[in-house]
Each structure stands twice: as C-alpha cells, then as structure tokens.
Amino acid sequence: MAETADITLLLDAAREGDRGALDRVLATLYQELHTMARRQLAGQHGQTLDATALVHEAYLKLIGRREAQFDDRAHFFAYAASAMRSVVVDYARQRLAQKRGGDLHRVTELPDDVEGGLRLDEDTLGLDTALTKLAAVDPRLAQVVELRYFAGLSELEIAALLERSERSIRRDWQKARLFLLASLKDS
C-alpha cells in the first residue's frame, strides 16, 4: 500500500509539471509495464517489436503528450494501455504495408483468452477500428478492452485497478466482445 501512496504522490507532482516525478513513476512501474508487454507479445518470435521496444515506444508516447495527466495508478495504466495499443497498431500497419501493400482482410473473431498474445497483423488493425467505435459508444467498455487485450491484464487485475468487482469487469468484457465482434463482421 505504501508503494501505491508513493505512486499517487509522484503522479500528483507529475500532474503539476514535475517531469522528474513522471520519470520516477515510469521507473517504478517499468517492470509492470514490461511484464504487460511481454505477455502481449508472446508468440511473436522473429518480430522487430519486442517487449522492451514496446515499453520504450509507449514511454515516448507517455512523456511526449503535454496534456497527459494521471490522476491515480488506474489512470496511468489506462493511459499506458492506450499508448501500447497505439504502438502495436502503428507497428501492424507498417508491417502490413511492407508485406502486402496495405491490404486488409475481414476479421471475424476476437479471442476471449488473450494469454497467447497479440497478433501483429491486419486483425489488430480491424480490432483498433472496432475499438474506436466502441469508445464512442461506451468509453468504460473500451477501457476494459484496452486493459485486457492491449495491456494483457486479467479480469481480476482490471477489477482491482479500477476498484470495481471482478463480476462487473467480466460483464463489461462480454458486452464489449459482442459489440466488437458485431463491428468486425459488419466491416
């Protein structure tokens, strides 16, 4: 609990413009971010995007946005998940453009179990588009998807982070999956 209080104090200082405080937050949470990235990139051997590169690219996005403010640890991780999503999507776009000239195919599945890691391909691009639509309809559901799919957190971890019940997170995940599947099939 002391670490959470320290993180909150550092986040408060970072919000007031203390760049050193943000650096200390990132250094403190680096291992957690790296674990999230490694979990998500599992099975992507031979790719140029590894867990360390993903964390570093996400870090650059985190510090590069002046308007980024983190109210608490949950907000920080939500923003980190969004930054990781952005990096993964950019990487998939670049890879697809090099490989096939940017052709996309129709995505018709969204795995319930994301333990196997993200696929860095056109599926990720289709999911990103559908997730953007979901965020316009229900930002809370989109946040659960980002934390689960792009940050690789379990329902229990998301519940603790967002201070909600695991059951409500499970329901949100199921609702979000249905919305995303419908969006993916319609595209």
Key features of this structure:
mainly alpha; 8 helices; globular; 187 residues
3D structure, described in words:
By secondary structure, the protein is mainly α. The chain is 72% helix and 0% strand. α3 (51-64) packs across α4 (73-100), α4 (73-100) packs across α6 and α5 runs antiparallel to α6 (139-150). It comes from Lysobacter stagni. InterPro entries: HTH_Sigma70_ECF-like (IPR053812), RNA_pol_sigma-70-like (IPR039425), RNA_pol_sigma-70_dom (IPR014284), RNA_pol_sigma70_ECF-like (IPR011517), RNA_pol_sigma_r2 (IPR013325), RNA_pol_sigma_r3/r4-like (IPR013324), WH-like_DNA-bd_sf (IPR036388). Residues 5-183 form the RNA polymerase sigma-70 ECF-like HTH domain.
Strand content: under 5%
Largest sheet: none
Tally of alpha and pi helices: 8
Total strand segments: 0
**Oligomerization:** single chain
Instruction: State the end-to-end distance.
Output: 45 Å
Element-by-element helix/strand order:
HHHHHHHH
SS-based class? mainly alpha
Note poorly predicted spans.
102-109
* Total of domains: 1
What share of the residues lie within helices? over 70%
| Gross geometry | globular
Average pLDDT taken over every residue? 77
Q: Rg, please?
A: 16 Å
Pfam families: Sigma70_ECF
Protein name: Sigma-70 family RNA polymerase sigma factor
InterPro entries: HTH_Sigma70_ECF-like, RNA_pol_sigma-70-like, RNA_pol_sigma-70_dom, RNA_pol_sigma70_ECF-like, RNA_pol_sigma_r2, RNA_pol_sigma_r3/r4-like, WH-like_DNA-bd_sf
Family: Belongs to the sigma-70 factor family. ECF subfamily.
